[in-house]
Amino acid sequence: MSTAFLILIAVFVGMALLRLPVAFAMLAAGLAYLLAGGKDMALAAEQIMTSLQQSYVLLAVPMFILAANVMNAGTISERLWGAANAMVGRFKGGLGHVTVIVSVIFSSMSGSALADAAGPGMVAVRMMRDVAKYPAGFAVALTAAAATIAPIIPPSIPMVLYALFANTSVAALFLGGVIPGLIMAAALMLAVAWLARKRGLPTGEKISAREALCHLARAFLPMTLPVLLLGGIWTGAFTPTEAAAVAALYAMLLAGFVYRALNWKGLYAVFAESLRSSTVVMLLIASAFIINYAVTAEQIDQQLAAWIKSMDLSPLAFMLTINVLFIILGCLIDTGTLLLVLVPVLLPTVKALGIDPVYFGVVVIVNLMIGLVTPPFGMVLFVLSGLTKTPLAAVSREVVVFCAALVAALFLMVLVPGTVLWLPRMFGYAG
Description:
- With 431 residues, the chain is an all-alpha fold.
- The chain is 78% helix and 0% strand.
């Protein structure tokens, strides 16, 4: 490891400790590496522009962000809530179960945990606090934990980014996320059921069959979007990248013309917010390209692969070790950094051990999503705590049970690869 790379690490850690944006920390660290190594500073621009130009799949990111923002701006979140309440709201702790079901449904439209938390998540918190009188910390913690399902059930922005670095099939990753996402939902609902009995949470309001059908009918069109997207990808009608544009267009047609819940002024605000969010993500990705150039130039990834191979770890032992490491790091480091910097470093080792890259990708992304709700630096916890004005300490206490449920689901996926690979193989994936 050269002096220039040690300077890169020092600059990144120093800026991260100062709580500067991660993208700026990575960009500054990459530039410091080039400067310390006596390399042409124009390499930074070259690496960024070349990588972005060759990454057609990245077009999916702003499109999925736009689709999620359109759905949140219209009445789609409320319609999904009504439909989920009609299905499971009558059980003990019913609104908790509804929160999880809404996240499952919305996850098949947005691909972003933050979009889920800020959209239907806010509806869920309001209903649990104001209608069912759940403790504020519990309501926010459950909503945050349920939002982690959004990037697992397709479509998924993190899976698009992983496919970029792993050079693997986006469609196979999307298929691989379906069953794990449902396992996560089941684990959270079991935790809600246990807490509902332990704390005596109220049973949800019973509604008639006619009212239930009305709620399901109101949400029917939004609930057809997953079928449209996945059906189009599987049949070859459009690529996963083009599916993102289809999702955005479908959401705009529903919100603007069918439900008339989005006018031109509102649409402008949605585009502006989507542009801001997309810029943040793209800046993070661009900065990661420079870090990855430094890692490749220093042959860190190859050295790590050789070191792990010398330890003679089995694929299962490697997966267990990596997941424990990522759970610990997820408590301390931004998940975007782990996905864009650390995961590419591990990929040569994954290939050397014969681990399927789709299986590895889905499992690691589940792990990273748990990091979004793991104290003390869970990003989704910060967002929902700020939006709902709920003390972070109260949320952190309540989220422990839900994190435990999600970790149990994660290790089930690690131990049983078929939970990830069964669907992709059913549809012809032969990795």
